[in-house]
Amino acid sequence: MITATKIPLIGVTQMGGTLGRPQHSSLMLATALRRSFFSRAHTHRHYPLSLVMNSLGKRAQQQQYRTIFFDNNSRASLHKSKRNYSYNVQPPAHQPTNVIGARPFSVFGIGKAAVRAAKLPAYLGGGLAAAGSYVIYQVEKATNYTTDQLGRVKDIAGDLADGFNGFIDGIIDAAANASDGGANASKSGSESSGSGGNGNGAAVGGSAAAIALSSDEDEEEELVLEEDDEEDEEEEEQADDTDDDMVNLTRQMIEIRSILLNVNGSNALRLPSIVVVGSQSSGKSSVLESIVGQEFLPKGSNMVTRRPIELTLVNDNSLAAETAEFPALKMFNMTDFSQVQKILFDLNMAVPYEEAVSNDPIQLTIRSPRVPDLSLVDLPGYIQVEAADQPVTLKNRIRELCERYLEEPNIILAISAADVDLANSSALRAAKRADPRGERTIGVITKMDLVSAEQAKKMLTNRKYPLKMGYVGCITKAPQTQSLFRRQSGTQAFIAQQNFERSFFKEHKNDFAGSTTGTKNLKKKLMRVLEKSMASCLKPMHILVSNELEETSYKFKVEFNDRELTSEKYMAQTIDQLKIGIKEFSEKFGRPELKALLRSELDQRVLDLLALRYWNKPPTPQTSKKNATPD
Ligand SMILES: Nc1nc2c(ncn2[C@@H]2O[C@H](COP(=O)(O)OP(=O)(O)OP(=O)(O)O)[C@@H](O)[C@H]2O)c(=O)[nH]1
């Protein structure tokens, strides 16, 4: 893709503020400085920098703007474009206005003003020198900030899964290589060596990302092996750290997302929603609860989910315990989850009998230090045929409602109960329609406790609809016959369900060998899916960073060809430029210009006084009477 980028010359010099590690920040500096320096200079006349720009106006017209064409994708064409780059002379869009006009002025202080005016060039000189220092200070500050931020990204990357790790490192290495390449280019003056550094850096980053993403393809195989090990008794004795892993992953996501937000202001890390579909009473709500770790959804065998429940989980470290909120009902900070469950039940049951289901979603947000940052959707269950007392269009309406949520990039949790033949599974039928290649669907078989182990195992190796992420067998509710569990609710019920599920699969360890079972492993699968989605979200970012670095290094080369660039030299050069600017300005701004300014200020002030004295006078009785008379 060929892009044309307009870069003011002074913006290029600013980017070289500090060399070595800080060059990672060139992306942000290039944009931020270009924006702040020029927009301020052109739009805010009271800024000291506008003076500089004013004085440099002539120079700017001669050389400040150039257009560089280059191909973002190919190194070879970059070389070609470098040979063909051209300078387009374009004057700034707005010439800066004169700052003196903004100074306060008193008609009684003309004498004093004249004296001050004589000293004005000296004041301005001092002001401009201070402005210069301020600019340099800001450049350093911005450079240090971005260095810190990128350092943090690297630290976080160190903690992430291997594939993802490679990806982030690729970015950091590409950044380092590119900056070094830029500096080397300046040192050696050799065109090929400078761009070569960048190109390689980008290539390293690109291949790192590619390896990271391709390694995900083999995840499932690894997972099954891991799971086999997890079935070992020894490991089962250990504490379950899946929740912690999930929360850690979430934290990293949030951190990366906020860094990306700071750097480029876009929410580049969007995660898909996890949508739970299945036939009526298949156990959808129970599966969702086992993921969240709280019992809060209405459950029952009489179609209790009648509206989509859009559940947003927010990881909030400032909280000691979970809180729930219904933003639409203006109900916040609810800590009693049985109350939440009751409200959800009432909201579902409030759907009129003639309608049976409603498209209007219920929005619920749960904040907790322990939940991952996710959005989950519980949907009304599919039905086979409408009952005599149900609307005849109900089946189609449920189907249409679910299809909207099954679209890409959402992850589909297709729930089927083990006590129903999989050939009749509405969830798998719907998932196949939305995701024919089975790439973003996880098949979940609930109620494993209700069928024989042989039958259950057969379901987990479903060959009719093979899923890339496979099938997971779960027990999301302890059987009702066990009165011990029936009495429990909330967190207690959740713990009881976990214990029951664990002991069940432990008992049938040999029957389910080689299959994925348990809600713990379901969560693990979800985590991998989220990691993968994060990596693919970051891939375009990586390409963007590489391209920007290539561009920046090229600009370094053009600007500092054959010269070694250090921060001291850069600072000295900037100060020299400011000095020249001040000199030009003081030469241009002599007595006649000052007189003209004072005169126009004085005229304006006299006009203001006249307006006050005569035109804004309150109406006399005669004038108001005259105004009131119709024509
Ligand atoms: N024995 C057993 N019962 C389960 C299991 N999972 C869910 N149930 C029971 O199945 C019934 C339906 O569960 P829900 O989670 O409400 O199912 P649902 O699909 O959300 O139901 P609707 O929203 O009404 O479509 C409840 O009575 C649960 O207690 C399980 O793994 N084993």
Automatic annotation (TrEMBL):
Region feature Disordered, mapped onto this chain:
179-201, 214-247
Q: Give every Dynamin-type G domain span.
A: 268-539
Q: What is this protein called?
A: dynamin GTPase
Q: From which source organism is this entry?
A: Ambrosiozyma monospora
Q: What class of enzyme is it?
A: hydrolase
Reaction(s) catalysed (UniProt annotation): GTP + H2O = GDP + phosphate + H(+)
Which Pfam family, giving just one, matches this sequence? Dynamin_N
Q: Which GO terms describe its biological process?
A: membrane organization; mitochondrial fusion; receptor internalization
What taxonomic ancestry is recorded? Eukaryota, Fungi, Dikarya, Ascomycota, Saccharomycotina
Q: Which domain of life is it from?
A: Eukaryota
Q: What is its EC number?
A: 3.6.5.5
Q: Which GO terms of the molecular function aspect are on file?
A: GTP binding; GTPase activity; metal ion binding; microtubule binding
